[in-house]
Design goal:
This protein is an alpha/beta fold. Helices cover 22% and strands 26% of the residues. The protein is built from 11 helices and 17 strands. It has helices at 75-78, 98-104, 141-150, 164-167, 173-187, 207-213, 240-247, 263-271, 296-305, 310-315, 319-324, and strands spanning 3-14, 19-28, 31-33, 42-47, 52-55, 57-62, 84-89, 112-118, 155-162, 194-198, 219-221, 251-253, 342-349, 353-355, 361-363, 366-375, 378-382. Strands 1, 2, 3, 4, 5, 13, 16 and 17 form an 8-stranded mixed beta sheet that branches. A 7-stranded parallel beta sheet has the order 6-7-8-9-10-11-12. Helix 6 (207-213) packs parallel to helix 7. The chain is globular and about 65 Å long.
């Protein structure tokens, strides 16, 4: 057989097992193909000796409505050069403006882009005093269902922001209403977890109430956030309600961003064995390649510096988000027959200093350097020296 591409001699990441295996990876007709040692006939051979071959990285929470809001990052420029082949918008748009986002952005992007749908009809209004309208009486389940029917493969759940900037005096009511809408959509056959933005909570919402309300498969974004009531008790231990939520299957998303974490918080959680299930960038237009947000790879470097094992970290940007988004048959692993979304990294030791947004700093452990990005069997990015 003449293959389109063979990645030879690389350390190939088995994302489900969480380990590297030295072997060749074969690509044919846009998918991962069977191969055998000695099969060397290919249009392109990429020597990956000493490098790491992974499923295309997944950035599960970004804001990508480039042409519709002032916060939208450009998926082509922030994903492809960083080894990201699959991304999910973190609920920038609601039912009233998602169609425009889909037509003007999603279908035009090079990486595969999915999205959460903001439960607020008009979505994120971008850096306003009240960034979303979270009056549950204004939610439109009829329009939400219409969007899920029109885009069943693209929409991956509902987004609700739980913080002072959106809740006013509504307390838990917006989240509980979002869960009701989600349950109705699930009953009608749609994939629909709820992803919450957990930030500085108002006085009438507690961490215990918040995490007790979340169901298996729901996603808590910004789990290491540092304002108001955090996931840490006064003695520094993880809040029991957060631990119970994890035990019943609630997914913990680092959802890095710029202001939603500190180095002490990351170190304290990792030191207790409380790792994120997902690492995402929460990239917006003003944080593209600007420290300490920068990119998904920068977030990975920071978590590595704070003590997270490389293999566990790589699962957080491959198989774990694929499962959380219900797309594990399309992304997150390098299995025969799956789309040939491939990332080649050089993973280097480093003593580079990393800083958070609050003056903290830490010496790095690993640098994740992108060398090549393949989407559906086509090389979309490659370093000139590789």
């Amino acid at each position: 057989m003449l293959y389109d591409t063979i990645f030879k001699n690389g350390q190939v990441f088995d994302s489900e097992a969480g380990k590297f295996v030295k072997k060749d990876l074969y690509i044919k007709d846009g998918v991962v193909a069977e191969g055998a040692p000695g099969d060397e006939a290919a249009k392109t051979v990429v020597d990956c000796e000493g490098k790491f071959v992974l499923p295309g990285l997944i950035d599960e929470h970004m804001h990508l409505d480039l042409y519709g809001t002032i916060i939208g990052a450009n998926a082509d420029t922030v994903c492809i050069p960083n080894g990201i082949t699959t991304a999910c918008d973190g609920g920038t748009c609601g039912a009233s403006n998602f169609t425009l986002f889909y037509n003007s952005n999603i279908i035009r992007y090079e990486p595969h882009v999915y999205s959460y749908l903001n439960v607020s009809t008009f979505g994120n209004k971008s850096l306003c005093k009240h960034e979303e309208n979270h009056d549950p009486d204004d939610f439109r389940p009829d329009l939400i269902e219409k969007q899920f029917k029109a885009h069943p493969e693209t929409l991956r759940g509902l987004k609700v922001r739980m913080c002072k900037a959106t809740l006013d005096d509504y307390g838990m009511a917006p989240l509980l209403r979002a869960i009701e809408i989600s349950e109705d959509l699930k009953a009608k056959g749609h994939f629909c977890p709820v992803a919450i933005h957990y930030d500085d909570l108002p006085e009438n919402v507690s961490v215990e109430e918040l995490f007790n309300a979340l169901r298996p498969g729901d996603i808590a974004a910004h789990v290491f956030q540092c304002k108001g009531e955090t996931i840490f008790m006064e003695d520094g231990s993880i809040h029991p309600a957060v631990l119970r939520a994890r035990e019943r299957g609630v997914i913990m998303d680092d959802c890095h961003g710029r202001v939603h974490w500190t180095i002490p918080h990351l170190k304290a959680a990792i030191g207790q064995g409380f790792f994120p299930d997902i690492v995402s960038s929460d990239c917006v237009r003003i944080s593209e390649y600007v420290r300490p947000g920068f990119s998904l790879l920068y977030a990975m470097c920071m978590l590595s510096a704070c003590g997270m094992d490389t293999e566990k970290l790589l699962q957080c940007v491959t198989i774990n988000p694929a499962k959380a988004m219900g797309i594990a048959d399309k992304a997150g692993a390098l299995k025969t027959g799956m789309p040939a979304d491939v990332t080649v990294l050089d993973i280097q030791d480093t003593d580079m200093m990393f800083k958070d947004n609050y003056g903290g700093e830490i010496k790095g452990s690993k640098l994740f350097v992108p060398l090549l990005t393949m989407v559906d069997g086509r090389v979309a990015y490659r370093q000139i020296f590789f």
